[in-house]
Design the sequence.
């Protein structure tokens, strides 16, 4: 298909498609004449992925570039590629100095070991969880992660992981991961606040 | 205690305390001399609440004012006061025009009815969930909320609701709600991403 058709089918404007081509986010089409290139389904799929990362994941273009490079590097095993997408979605957390941080980080590493979870030693999510624990401790909240661990484990292993097409095109797997992580995460967060409102009304007997 | 002691105990700087007094977020102390006011535990508790709303909930001052007004209006039942805090934490979502939105919103209202959840008809969380459903549908994601509903219900009714001191000071109940919603929400979100990494490594057999 020509660029105009690619634009119509993807809903991405032509100047934006040209920008993605210049930035290397979208592979060049097949040059079939001096002023004409031909695009196919793989370009459509890539545009879907970029939109998902940009609009739903709200990633900056630099982070999108990292993810795309992982998608294109076919020597990377699928789960490493997915890990890169996951890490791009995770906020960057600066480790803090002091004993409080050391303790929280050791607690996170211990938890992951005890669970037997396969998590990269450098995964930024370890620091993200450590930071959350430090804040909880500073604010005097009781720290009992067990129900959250069990809930997350169950949700992911019984439901969410099956929505990722591990054997399909690499673009599609990353897209499913990003959309699932962000949108089902948002849905769960709203449902949790709704459950809070209802349960507190019930307890107050109104 | 004097303002200097209130500042030391709360970790809030004196100019900031004066700002909260001017804005009406913090009640005036008892005037015991022309240039001296006396503060007590209720002021400390209020400062804790303001910090929780500001630093953990990341609410703008205008929203904090609404929550504080609800805390101070003792004619409001506790669960209405907590609802106001909850709504302040929820992003504002503009209803969209078109049939897609109508359908999603009807689906949300139907879900809440079916569950028998006690949710205010004007709760902004209804629109927030409708928006999430519209995005899922536009992106072609399967919409099956059941496992999320069940998970949220269980987590809230069996664990989280018991961390809210309904019978204690009103400030303390709101503080517990805000801290719990934001920090346990964040903890769950990280754990879910960790579970994804581990489960996808397991499935890929590495």
Sequence:
């Amino acid at each position: 298909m020509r660029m105009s058709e690619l634009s119509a089918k993807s809903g991405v404007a032509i100047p934006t498609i040209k920008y993605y081509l210049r930035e290397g986010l979208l592979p060049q089409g097949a040059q079939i004449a001096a002023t004409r290139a031909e695009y196919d389904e793989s370009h459509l799929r890539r545009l879907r992925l970029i939109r998902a990362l940009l609009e739903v994941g709200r990633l900056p273009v630099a982070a999108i570039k990292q993810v795309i490079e992982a998608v294109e590097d076919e020597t990377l095993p699928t789960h490493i590629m997915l890990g890169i997408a996951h890490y791009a979605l995770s906020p960057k957390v600066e480790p803090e100095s002091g004993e409080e941080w050391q303790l929280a980080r050791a607690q996170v590493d211990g938890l992951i070991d005890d669970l037997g979870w396969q998590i990269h030693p450098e995964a930024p999510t370890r620091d993200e969880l450590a930071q959350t624990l430090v804040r909880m401790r500073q604010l005097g909240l009781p720290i009992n992660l067990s129900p959250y661990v069990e809930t997350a484990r169950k949700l992911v292993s019984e439901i969410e992981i099956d929505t990722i097409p591990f054997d399909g095109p690499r673009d599609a797997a990353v897209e499913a991961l990003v959309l699932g992580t962000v949108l089902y995460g948002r849905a769960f967060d709203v449902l949790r606040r709704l459950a809070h409102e209802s349960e507190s009304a019930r307890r107050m007997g109104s």
